[in-house]
UniProtKB/TrEMBL annotation:
Organism: Microbispora triticiradicis
Keywords: Hydrolase
GO molecular function: phosphatase activity
Alphabetical list of Pfam families matching this protein: GAF_2, SpoIIE
Region (Disordered): 1-29
Claim: Iron-sulfur is one of the keywords in the record: no
Entry protein name: GAF domain-containing protein
Amino acid sequence: MPRKEPEVSTVEEAPGRPTAADSDEEARRQEAVRRYAALETASGGAFDRVAALAARIFHAPFATVTIVGDDRVRVIAAHGPSARRAIFRSPIAGSPFMESPVVVSLCAAAVRHDGPHAVSDARLHPGAAGDPAVRGEPGIRFHAAAPIVTPDGEPLGSVNVMDTRPREAGEEELACLRDLAGLVMDELQVRLVTQRTVEIERQLRAGAERLARTLQRTLLPPALPRVPGLRAAAAYHPVSADEVGGDFYDLFPLDGDRWGFFLGDVCGKGAGAASLTSLVRYTLRAAAVYDADPHAVLANLDAVLQQEHAGGDMPAPYCTAVFGVLQPDGDGFGVTLATGGHPPALAVRADGLVEPIHPAGGQLIGILRNPHFAQVSARLNAGDALLLYTDGLTEARTETGSMLDEDGLTAYLAAAGPTSADALLDTVHDLITDLGEGVSDDAAVLALSVPPATRSSFSGSQGAA
């Protein structure tokens, strides 16, 4: 291989008082080291291959990839016995550790060179001749280095080759060393971009989660109203923190002493589902003011959704829902329910019996021509409770892989024996926790209960969770 006289450091200038320009230059370099988190860079296959290739090109026993900090030099890759040192103290920036190994001394000096350079014989180098690594083991004599330089010209460290015999470096060898230093810089650049991308994605996800939570809150009542003689509680269990679901519920006063309530689930997720949910909630409340008959309310909602789809190219918007009217009756409440494609409500009786309140039939709302909506009447006596829920709960998978379904939910409630709205919510929360990853869809629950006859007939309300 043709050789030329390399740049050889035969005399090292004594470190005088640093000038302001030197201090500014070093400050910029240290900022670049921090920006690339270079001193914290984990060693890896790419850097190890660079060190191995550098040693092979020079036919040398040792090679390292080093990063120079303000008071230490870190080896992030090494090839050859005894080449790796976890943390080195360097004789730069006024550090008192002047007994540092020659590898450190020369690597620290490498960042002051504009390009690849070589020291032919370290024993003739004033700054290294007294170092134990030169006088003793491993007896370093030759050192070649190429600085690792950022795109804006700041050196972070160097790729180094060392030998135990004095020698010279050829032009081609030094050029290869420069290219290897460029590869290290490329890898550091990729890691920096990746880190920034991950951070941006993390920030975007956090922003999306905040937006989703805010939007979700606008689709649910901030608190349920107080109903004399009734306890009401509701909860929403989202699967994803950054995706808006389509589950909804509400409880509101009608004429006289009657109260309307509903719970349902629109198709889809995200902004489209949020828009449809808002339309459905508004329509249900408005329709109930016009005519509170549950069957008529669902029919009006169906007409609105059908009109939304008329003449459009988008898939038909649809939902499932149960709408009910509460009427005080003695020490309890009469309940009239109408459903459109929704799972049955469950009545939890004071004696622990759990029974479905489910009218026959009841089709999806908004997607079928002339759909049938079913209606049924029931009664909540003192000590009874009523649970409405979306299918995210009953379609969850148990540990056996089967769906929980309505029978599984009924059995769970019967075993727990809750008799109040708050206890029902706690029971459902425990169930969702037990199901864990088996829950793959959002679940909303609305619970209504009549206090036992031995207790006060008035109870406050709990806001939507």
